[in-house]
Amino acid sequence: MNWSGMYTLLAKEVWRFLKVTVQTILTPVVTSLLYLLVFGQALEEHVQIFEGVNYINFLIPGLMMMNMIQNAFANSSSSLIQSKMNGNIIFVLLAPLSVLEFYIAFTLAAVLRGLLVGIVVYIAVQPFLDLPVHSWGYAVGFALLGSATLGTLGIIGGVLSTKFDQLAAFQNFVILPLSFLSGVFYSLYSLPETWQTISRFNPFFYMVDGFRYGFFGQSDIEPGTSLAVAGSFFVVLALLTLWMLHKGYKIRH
Amino acid sequence: MAACTPSRGVSFDIEQGEFFGLLGPNGAGKSTLINTMAGLVRASDGNIAVMGHDTVSAYRQSRAALGVVPQELVYDPFFSVRELLRLQSGYFGLRRNDDWIDELLTTLDLGNKADANMHDLSGGMKRRVLIAQAMVHKPSVLVLDEPTAGVDVDLRQQLWEFTTRLHEQGHTIVLTTHYLEEAEALCDRIAIIDQGELVALDSKHALLERCPERKLTLVLEDASINLPPRLEEKVVERDSNRLVLMLDKRHMRIGEVLQAIQTHGIELIDLHIEEPGLEEVFMQITRKDKGVRA
Fold first, then answer.
1. Are A95 and B92 in contact (CB < 8 Å)?
2. What is the value of ipTM here, to two decimals?
3. Which listed site, A14, A165, B170, B250, has its alpha carbon 20 to 30 Å from B219?
4. How far is CA B110 from CA B80, B82, B122, B217, in A?
């Protein structure tokens, strides 16, 4: 393993998003607070999903996860598409880095951005709410899994896209609907049966639900099942990405 | 140093320590060949080795031995020059490389631009940074893909001096260029590729020998003289006081022409000899390749 090379690529990817924190960290925090304000205030009186959990509190883990996964996706995908469009991706391709090192560096950077966004959102809502943590293990585990999965999807999106437009389509027509319809704002059981069935095919649902279990000890689905589904989804995506990178698909022509 | 046999029969060795020129018209496949060497392009067939390391099966060693200066002025807009060099260094496993980075910055006259963003640098400066990036891991082989395209005369001279110095220090240099005088001035050996095929590979001197005709221009008091038939057939242009002859330097001496003029008692006002250059050789080879007689 070229540990030092992999570490440098990871550091570069982290450094890159830290250079534009207004866009990469602050914006998602503000968006989350706005969601909280609008949905939380409007619906708090009317909706109670888990026993003993008011709606605003219910909303927070979902919003955290939605932001984590969207930002993890944005990190790897935008870095890749930009370096492909600028042409500076060659500096990484010329280096003695293996496909696995490339994958780990990009995914870990996406995970770090996801976690950072999640933590900042968590801190930002503290003055207003009292959010319990039932199990740090599940909370952190699903945060890592969700960010890593979306970081991997970001690599796939970045590799497949040859124009910003294509990536925007991938982001707006795949990632955004899947994250909005993942149970961030509602419980699976508040949906009609057909939509419940459809939701069960959305892998993001298991990430949100499992993450929420970490806070309240309550969830729509058994957290072990969510872990198995989300974990399998991640493994399949990771293998697919490694295969694509190994083939040099749309990167090494 | 590098043995390569990618598609369509391009197969040759570049010796270690050589200054090697890779020439060819636009679209001939020079950049493709270089990119294949660097692993940026996958060869459909055949293989390339850098310093004995196969670019696919031993890619870590082959990439560590190779520095590539790309043709396009590409850069990551997020970082300063020094940051870019540190990152590039790190990719190659060199974490504490500031002494060499400083040396490169000084040598390439970039010392006062270390903290500048690439955005703010001129084209020539950007080109130097690309060279520094290619050299940051001290590769044995340096590939320069049209390094002097679009740079001013001063910078071109500096780049020539820099690459010559690297060559003297034992680096193998592979240069592609459109400027044939550049290849003629710097390269020991030259390959000419055209339409993806190797059409010539020889030492510079041997290539130049392929075009033995030198152009002799004479300015005379009166150019309407009758030269001996052997010389007369070599005249390609004539006006009232000017004669232009193409002479095969292997068989015909300039003295012979001057003697003929002297015999006629005509005053020679001026004389100009143009030796054949790589450009003529290049034109001859690439035209022949397309089935056109030179």
1. yes
2. 0.89
3. B250
4. 12, 10, 12, 46
